[in-house]
Amino acid sequence: MNSKLSKTHSFLQTPKTGDGRRFFHPILMMYPAHHFGKTYTDFMTDHRVLVESNMKCLEMHDFDAVSVISDPYREAAAFGAKVYFEGNHSPKADILIKNASDVDSLRNPDVYANERTLDRINGVKYFRELLGPKFPIIGWVEGPLAESADLAGISETMMNMMMEPDMVKKLQRKCLQTAKDFALAQIDAGANIIGVGDALCSQIPPEMYDEFCFELHQELFEFIHAKGALVKLHICGNITHILPSLAKTGLDILDVDWMVNMADAYQAMGDEVMLAGNLDPVSVILEGNQSYIEEKYNEIEKVVPRDNWIVMGGCEIPPATPVENVNLLRKLSMK
């Protein structure tokens, strides 16, 4: 195992590491809320519900990490966007940025002063109080392009990347600064891994990723490393076309969604990066029977070395997923 991968493994150690099992920590949002008898809104708006429901899942499934991931609008709320919660549905937010003058007037928030960002910081603190110093805790921030889209709209951001590229780049710079501030606050609270969600990157061609995102990702990842944490990058969707660029950003863990071939991902990322994924959360983890789940698990096991794989769905575990299916993944990861 090379030194970079060995460092990543050291950050992922739990009191149970070393018994031969693979690391196993899927993305959990609606699933823990469901099993804790709370709404998704409860989960997103109260760090105690988020932490305690995740702790219930930790007890149920023996995961190897916990996370404060919940929804993409923490930073947007801190910037001033109104966020609307609707029970068990995903939230929505008002668009703040409609033109270049809106970007000019946008001010970076104090992440300790806003209720939603502070709630996530307190979630990290609560996890660390409950789990002690040795358990992996994953903080979470929005990547610069995703946060720009949260503030300006997805379609509008993609159009402006062609029509008003300087405006988008200026907005991304402000989003990058808040991502740094928010990441540092969570590291100071006890997170030793920072998840970065930048979903819109899967929807742009490689040349646009390189122009708009590559250097900002490098800068953010270097900042997180300098503050003592690892980087886990999550980009929903098919990222096959940007894998060569992602391999140069300096990330430590790459989430791989179900539509990406894991052999291709491993070939592109090499031996220094851990790949987390990429079982289809719906057709495999939610709907699959035992033999089908094991078949799909074995397909990944054959193409990614043990040291480079974190067992996970390609994205979030659906709330109605049978408990026995998640437990089966834990059992398979022990062999």
Describe the protein in words.
Helices cover 51% and strands 13% of the residues. Helix 10 (165-189) runs parallel beside helix 12. An eight-stranded parallel β-sheet has the order 1-10-9-8-7-6-5-2. It contains 17 helices and ten strands. It is globular and about 55 Å long. The chain has a single domain, classed as TIM Barrel (Alpha-Beta Barrel). By secondary structure, the protein is of the alpha/beta class.
Low-confidence runs:
none
Which structural class should the secondary elements be placed in? alpha/beta
- Number of helices, counting only DSSP H or I runs of 4 residues or more: 17
> Quick one: CATH class?
Alpha Beta
> Helicity, in percent?
40-55%
Average residue-wise pLDDT? 97
Structure summary, number of beta strands: 10
Share in β-strands = 5-15%
Sequence of strands across the biggest β-sheet: 1-10-9-8-7-6-5-2
Q: In total, how many domains does the architecture comprise?
A: 1
Oligomer: single chain
By CATH, the topology is TIM Barrel
Give the overall form: globular
* Cα-to-Cα separation, first versus last residue: 20 Å
What summary fits the major beta sheet?
8 strands, parallel
Rg, Cα atoms, Å? 19 Å
Order of helices and strands: HEHHHEHEEHHEHHHEHHEHEHEHHEH
